[in-house]
Design goal:
- The structure is a homodimer.
- The first copy, chain A, is elongated, with a radius of gyration of 28 Å.
- In chain A, strands 7, 8, 9, 10, 12, 14, 15, 18 and 19 form a 9-stranded antiparallel beta sheet that branches.
- In chain A, 32% of the residues lie in helices and 23% in strands.
- In chain A, helix 3 crosses helix 4 and helix 4 (85-107) packs antiparallel against helix 5 (110-126).
- Chain A starts with a helix and ends with a strand.
- Chain A is of the alpha+beta class.
- The model of chain A is unreliable at 4-29 (pLDDT under 50).
- At the A-B interface, strand 12 and strand 13 of A face strand 12 and strand 13 of B.
Chain lengths: 752, 752
Amino acid sequence: MKQFQTLLYILLISISCTQEKEVVVTGGNQHPNLILTTKSVSEIKSKLGAIPVFDETLSVAKATVDAAIQKGIDVPIPKDMAGGYTHTQHKLNYANMQKAGVLFQLLGDDKYAIYIRDMLLAYAKMFPTLPRHPQIRSYARGKLFWQCLNDSNWLVFTSQAYDCIYAWLPKEQTDYLNKTLFRPYADFLSIETPKYFNRVHNHSTWGNVAVGMIGLVMDDDELINRALYGLNKDDVDLSAKDNDGGFIFDKDGKAGFLANVDSPFSPDGFYTEGPYYQRYAMYPFLIFAEALQNKKPDLKIFEYKDGVLIKAVDALLNLTDADGEFFPLNDGQKGMSYYTSSLVSAVDIAYYYGNQDPRLLSVAKKQGTVQLDATGLKVALALKEGKEKPFVKESMELSDGSKGDEGGIGILRYNNTEETMALVYKYAAQGLSHGHYDKLSFSLYENGDEVLQDYGLSRFVNVEQKNGGGYLKENKTYAKQTIAHNTIIQNEISHFEYKYDLGSKNHPEKYIFDVYDTNFQIVSAKEKNAYPGTEMHRTMIMIKDEDLKKPFIVDINKIQANTKNQYDLPFHYFGQIISTSFDYKIPNKLKTLGDKYGYQHIWNEASGKANAESIQFTWLDNRRFYTLTSATNKNDELILARVGANDPEFNLRKDPSIIIRKKNTQNTVYASIIESHGTYDPVKEVAVNAYSNFSKIEVIQDNANYTALKIHFKEGKEKTIILSNLDSSQSKEHSLNINNKNYSWKGSYYYK
Amino acid sequence: MKQFQTLLYILLISISCTQEKEVVVTGGNQHPNLILTTKSVSEIKSKLGAIPVFDETLSVAKATVDAAIQKGIDVPIPKDMAGGYTHTQHKLNYANMQKAGVLFQLLGDDKYAIYIRDMLLAYAKMFPTLPRHPQIRSYARGKLFWQCLNDSNWLVFTSQAYDCIYAWLPKEQTDYLNKTLFRPYADFLSIETPKYFNRVHNHSTWGNVAVGMIGLVMDDDELINRALYGLNKDDVDLSAKDNDGGFIFDKDGKAGFLANVDSPFSPDGFYTEGPYYQRYAMYPFLIFAEALQNKKPDLKIFEYKDGVLIKAVDALLNLTDADGEFFPLNDGQKGMSYYTSSLVSAVDIAYYYGNQDPRLLSVAKKQGTVQLDATGLKVALALKEGKEKPFVKESMELSDGSKGDEGGIGILRYNNTEETMALVYKYAAQGLSHGHYDKLSFSLYENGDEVLQDYGLSRFVNVEQKNGGGYLKENKTYAKQTIAHNTIIQNEISHFEYKYDLGSKNHPEKYIFDVYDTNFQIVSAKEKNAYPGTEMHRTMIMIKDEDLKKPFIVDINKIQANTKNQYDLPFHYFGQIISTSFDYKIPNKLKTLGDKYGYQHIWNEASGKANAESIQFTWLDNRRFYTLTSATNKNDELILARVGANDPEFNLRKDPSIIIRKKNTQNTVYASIIESHGTYDPVKEVAVNAYSNFSKIEVIQDNANYTALKIHFKEGKEKTIILSNLDSSQSKEHSLNINNKNYSWKGSYYYK
C-alpha cells in the first residue's frame, strides 16, 4: 500500500511540473517530521476554527504570506548590512517560507508549497555562485548576510519550510536541493567557518542548530552528529580566539549543541550571556530540542542536564520587569520583551514538553499568539479552557556557571496589587564575550520603569544608519565599562582592567541569599579579583517597614584593600534633580571626568563635598520622588555627571548619574538607603510625600568581622543592621558590643 | 406657614447645640441657591442610585469626606509655601467643605453640615487675628496662603459649602460668619488688595469670583457689583503695574469679572494667556456663571459676548493633543490635561447650558466623573442613555484678541484610525504676563507625543523643594525666551528685546488659514514688530501625498530686513540622532552658545557647516524616525545644542535642539520639510522606512512678491510650491516664469 502511494505520489509530482494546479498532496513519505508531524498536522486540522488564539495566529500568518506571494519572489544578490535592503529581504524570505510551510500543511493549498519550492530553486541557483558576503565587518562573514549568524537563522527557518514540502517535492528536486543548496550550506556554516561553529556562544548555537535541523530533514547523520558534538578537534586550532575574545572550544574542550547546553546554562536555567542573548538563543535551543524529540526521542533532550531547557524558560520569564521587558544585563537592548517571537515559541514548547505549568498560559495569553504546531495547539486549547494562572514573579536567585557555582543573579521583589519593585543584583560570572565589567552591580525597577539603570548595550539593532545595525564602538568604550554600572570603580579603572581573559577566569562569590522574610530580603556577595589586593563585599537588603508604604533598599558596599585608592560609586538615575543636601559648584565649561575606561564619555556637570556625615539626593522621575541617603565622610566628593562626551556620532544616551567619590582611602563602607517615597500628579498638581522618610544612615561599627549601621527615620524611629562579614552561617551565634550596647543574635545578620 | 417653619427651625437649631444628633433640617430659606438649588437637589435625590457616573462620583466624594471627618478638623496657623503642610491642609479643607456641602444636601446626613459649621467657626475665630501670610514672595500675599490667588480658591469653594448649610445654620451663626469671616475676607481680597483684584488676569478672575460667589450667598449686592465690575476707579492708581508686569486696569480701563470675560477671550473662545491658564480660569468663569444663571438669570451670562464662555470650553478641548493634554503654549506645565477637575466642571456646565453637544459627552465619559449638581446629573443621564459622540479634533483657527483681530493659533491636524498628527502654529498676541516671546513659533505632535516641542514653563507646580512650587528663575531666563521655541531669533536677541510693554503692544498678522483641502492644509502669518526693520513671514503646510503613509510639513520662513543680521532657527526635537548629511565637530569642552536671552543656558555640543544646498537630519524618538530636510546656503552653520548650562539648581530639562544659523544675511528664506517617516520596533528589532522620503528641498525663486520651492522626493517625483507673499486673496490670478517655465494659478498659493 505504502509503495503504491509513493508511486502515485511520484507520478503526480511528475505531472505537476507542467500542471501545477492539479497536484494532489499525498503521503508515502513520513515528512513533515521535524516540527510539524503528520500526526500533529492531522490533529490540528481537526481542531481548526475552534481554537481562537491558534486560529488568529494562523490567519495573520496567512495574510502575511499571501501578501508576500502577491508581491512575488525576490532573491537579491547579497550586498547590504543589517537594516539594508538585501539583508531585510532575505530575512523576510526565510520567515515567509517557514510560515508558508505551515500554511501548506494545515490548509493544504499548493500555492504555499509552490512559493517555497520556487524560492528554494532561486536560492539553489544563486548559492553556488556566492562568495562570502561583500561587507567585511564580521569575523565570520556569511553568504546571504554579513555574518554567518544570520545565515544560520535562514537555515533554521528554511529547514522547517523544506520539511513541510519535502514529501510534496519530486525526489529529483530534493536530491538537487540537498546537494546544491543545503548540504553545502551546512558545510559552509560548520567546516568552512570553524571559529563560528565551534564556540560556546549564542551565535554558535544558531550555527549548530542550523546544521542539525537541515541534517534531520535530510536524515544526514553526519550533519546531526556535527551539530550535537561540534567539529572534529583535529580540524581546529584550539588556542585560537575569535575577534569577540571568545575561545573556539569551551574550557572542557567540548563543542556543538550539547556543549552549548552544558556550559553556558547554570542548573537553574540562567544563561551566562544574559537574558537578551538567552532570549535570542532560546529559539534554536528549543526548536531543535522539539525536532530532536520528534525524530530522536531516545536522546531525551528535554531531560538533558536535569531538564535545564525547560527551566531556562522559567528563568528567562523571571528575568523581566513588570512589563515583561528583559533586564538588560551584559549586552542587552532595552525594550526587548517576552512578546518577542522566540519567547512565544519558548513558552509553548516549555508548556508542552514541561509539566503544563498554568502560569505559562498567562504569559501566552498576553502574547496573544502561539507557535503553529502541536505545542501551540495545546496552549491554545488550554487557554480556551481558561486554565491559565498568573505568572507572579517572586524573589529568586539564579546561579551562574555550568555547575551553578560561579555566582549568580539575586532578584529581590516586592509585589502588591498596585505596584511592584524589583532589585536585580548581579554577582554573575563574565558572561562570555557579551559580558560587561560590572561585578556586584545592580539595577532597580518600579512598575516596569527603570529607577536606577543598567545602561545596556550601545547599539541600534538593525538600524542601518548606525554602523549597519551592529555594535557601536561606544559599546566597548562606554557601555561595557564598569563606570556605566551601579558599582564600585577603583582608581578610575574598570574591573579586571577590562581584560576579557582575566574576567573570564574569575567570578564573585555568593555570600547570602535569604528572602524567607518578605519584609527583610537580603542578598550579599563578594568580589576579590576585579582589583587585585582589594575585596569588595556588597550587601543589598529590601526592607518593608510597617510604617512605610513601599519597601526601601539598604545598600552596603564594604571595601577592604591593601593600599589606598580612589573609589567611585555611581548611581545611574533618570529624571530631574529635586534637591540635594550638599552644596556643589557648576562649571562654566563642561569637562570630561577622565580619559579612559568610559570616563572620557562622562561630563562633570557639578561637583561638591559632602561636608556632612550623611547626604541626601532627591529626584523626580516617572512622576515619582526618589531619595538616595548615604553615609559619607566630610571629604567625600559628590559628582553630578552625564553621559555624552567624546561621542562623535551621538550614539550614547545623555543619561545622568550621581557619583560618590572617596579619595585616598583604604578600607571603607558605602552605606546607602534608596527609596521611592512619593508621587507627583501633573493633572492634580499635587506632590505627595515629596520628602524622604529618613534623616540619615550611619555606620556605627566596621571591621573585618562586622559592619553595623543605624538607620534614622525622619519620625525618630531607629533601626540597627549588623552584618557578619566572615561567617554566613544561619546557625552561628554572635554577640557584639557597640557604643556600650550589647547585641546578640543568631545567623549572618541582625535587624531591629 | 413659612414663619412658623422658620421659627421651628430656629428652635431646633438652638436645641442642636447640645443634641446635635436630633437636628432636623427644614426649609424656611431658599438656600441652597448658588450651584445646587432646592429644585436640583430634589431632582438629583430622585435619581440617586440609577445614574452610574454620578453615583460613583458621589461615592468617591463621600469616602473622601468621611475620611476627613474621621481625621478631625485641622485649621493650622498659616506658615508654609505651596507644597508645604499648612498650604496643603487649607487646600484640603476647602475641597472637603465643598464636597461635604453637596453630601449634606444630597444625602441629608447632618454630620456633613456639622463638619462645615465647625470648620467655618474655626476659620472665623482665626481670621481676624491673621496678618498677611508670613511668606513674602507674592505681590499679593494672602491670609491663609502665600498668595491671594489661593485664598480666592478657598473662598470660591467655601462659598458653595456655606450656601449648602446656610439654611441649616441659625441666623445668629450666619450673621456671625458673614460679619466676622466672609465679608472681611471679600474686602481683603478686593479693596485691600487692588493690584490683585482689579487686573485682567486669571488670578483676578479668581478674586472676582470669590467675592462674587460669597456676595451671592450673602445676597450682598455691593460685593456682587464689585465682582462684576471691579473696584471703584477712584481708589486705584491707574498707572501702577504689578510685579508680573501686568497693568491694574486693562486697556479700556475696565475691571472685574465681565472685563475678564471681555478682554482676554477672543470671539472664538481662545484665552490669550494660553490653554494652561485658561484651564485654570475655566472653573471660576463657569462656576460663577452657573451661580449667576441660578440667582441672576436676567444677566443672561451664558449669552454674554455671543456665548463666549461656552465657546471657550470647545476651544480649550481643541487645544489638546491626542491624549487630552493641553498644548503648553506660553507658561504651561506639561501633563496637564482635560482630566483635571476644572475641565470636568467646564464640560458639564457647557453641556448643560450650551446646546447639549454630544461630543462633550465622550470627553465626560473619558473623565469618568461629573460635577455633583444639575449639570453633572444631565451629563450622567445622557451617558447612561449612550448619547455620546466622538470628539474628533479637526484643523481649526482660534483667533486671539478680544475682537479676534490680534493673530491667533492655527492648528493643522491629520487623523486616521491609527495615528494623528497636530501642528500647532502660534501667531497669537503676547498673552499677558504669562506670555512667551515666541512669535510665529510652532510645535508638532504625533499620537499624543511631542515631536518638536514648546518647552513650556520652568516650574514644578506645588513641589515645595523647587522654590516653594512657584516659578523658577529659569522661566524668565530660558523658558520665556525666544530661543526656547521653534522660531527665528535675530542676532541672539529675543523678540521685542524681551520687553513686556513692547510685546503687549504688538501681535503678528494672520495671512492665510486654509484647511479646505485636507491634503493641503496651509497657515501663514507675518510678524513685523518683533525686530524693528525686519519682517518675518512664516508659512506652514501639512501635505498628505498619495504616495506617503503620513503627511509631511513644509515650513517656509521668509525674512526681509533692512540690515544684515544673524538668524537662528532652532528645532527642539527629542530622542537620539540617527544620521546627519553634514559634517560637524564635537568639542573637548562644552561651552555655552551665548550669554543672554536664554543662550547662556544652552551647550554647544557640536557644530558644522552645511557645505551643501540642502541638509538632512534624522532622529529616532518614541520608536519613530523623523527627518528634517532643509534648504541651506553652503555657509549656513548647523549647531547641535542642548539645554542645561548655567542651571545651578538643575531646574531645566536637558533637551536637545538643532539650530540652523545664517550669519551676515539680510533677506533670506528658511525652507524645510519635517516628516515622520518610519518606525522602530525593539521587540521585533525591525526598522521600517528608516530613511527620509525626500532627497532635498530647493528655493527656486524668492522675492518680495513670490517665494517658490521645489520638493524632491527620493523616488524622483517633484512638487512645486509657490506662495504669493503680498496678496492672500483667494480670487487673485497670478502668473510667473521660473527657470523658463510658466506657472499660472488663482489664489495665494500654487502646489503641483
